Amino acid sequence: MSFSTHFTHAITRKPAPSIIAGLRAVDTGMPDLAVMEAHHAAYIATLRETGATVVELPALDAYPDSVFVEDTALCLPQGAVVMRPGAPSRLGEAAEMAPHLQALYGQVVAISGTDSFIEGGDILVTEREVLVGRSARTNAAGIAELTRLVAPWGHTVREVHTPPGVLHFKTDCSLLDADTILSTDRLAASGCFDGYRVIPVADGEEPAANTIRFNDLVLMPAGFPRTRDAILAAGFKVREIGNSECAKLDGGMSCLSLRFTPR
Ligand code: CIR
């Protein structure tokens, strides 16, 4: 079973009322907490439908973006790495996540250099390598530290680039199976996926790039029919989840969970 697509567990965190103060690149309107909660519940139900255990953490009002748990850690089969988010308002979220990982994992290590910054949204784990996109949130020191931490677990890190103006590397791509990546053209054009099969996101549907393959399902944001049909045509089972409110904060399917199989 592929460790990069199949998982027994996920961790999520309820959105908090402070979500209205969440970070965003462009103001496209206030997120509606009740609608976000309904979407979040559908997301969790879909993860559970695949047979996984979902640990739902309580809302953390002190951290407006804390529903986006993916940015706080990297979960690998051998252990978890607690991140150091590059957004100052999000730095404290990582420490809030650490004890929950320690409860489930044998080995938990942390990015600790004061100059090191790295967020989970910039990390795409495939069966053969860990790709990390340098971005406004993830710097060279953070990538170097991650490289050292995961080497003893047998993982190779390859540094790539998040396109300018794009929040995270995985804002623009996702892994569909061991060899297949869904990607925007603007990201794939960099050549970073040479050697993989790439399914292009339909022109004008760029927000559809952030999906997750979780066990037998691909969870994708609702409202992107041409990209959905391309994923279906490639033989994947798709579930569309409402994402209108998280999208106002530049968040999507991958951001909402940590996915792993603890050892
Ligand atoms: C942020 O700017 O940090 C949040 N508003 C969105 C984080 C999305 N996370 C992700 O793509 N992994």
How do the strands and helices of this protein lay out in sequence?
Elements: E1 9-13, H1 33-49, E2 53-57, E3 73-75, E4 80-82, H2 91-102, E5 108-110, E6 123-125, E7 130-134, H3 140-150, E8 157-161, E9 173-177, E10 180-183, H4 185-188, E11 197-200, E12 212-214, E13 217-221, H5 225-233, E14 237-241, H6 244-247, E15 258-260
Parallel strand pairs: 1-2, 4-5, 7-8, 10-11, 13-14
Antiparallel strand pairs: 1-15, 3-4, 6-7, 9-10, 12-13
Q: Which CATH-level-2 architecture?
A: 5-stranded Propeller
Estimate the strand proportion: 15-25%
Question: Which stretches are poorly predicted, pLDDT < 50 over at least 5 residues?
Answer: none
In this entry the ligands are: citrulline
> Helicity level, as a percent range?
10-25%
Radius of gyration: 17 Å
Tally of domains: 1
* Broad shape: globular
Q: What is the fold-level CATH name, i.e. the topology? A: L-arginine/glycine Amidinotransferase, Chain A
Strands, total number:
15
CATH class: Alpha Beta
The N- and C-terminal alpha carbons lie at a distance of 15 Å
Q: Tally the helices.
A: 6
Give helix and strand order, one letter per element, not per position.
EHEEEHEEEHEEEHEEEHEHE
Strand arrangement within the widest β-sheet reads 2-1-15
CATH superfamily: L-arginine/glycine Amidinotransferase, Chain A
Largest sheet: 3 strands, mixed
Category from helices, strands and their pairing: alpha/beta
The pLDDT mean sits at 97
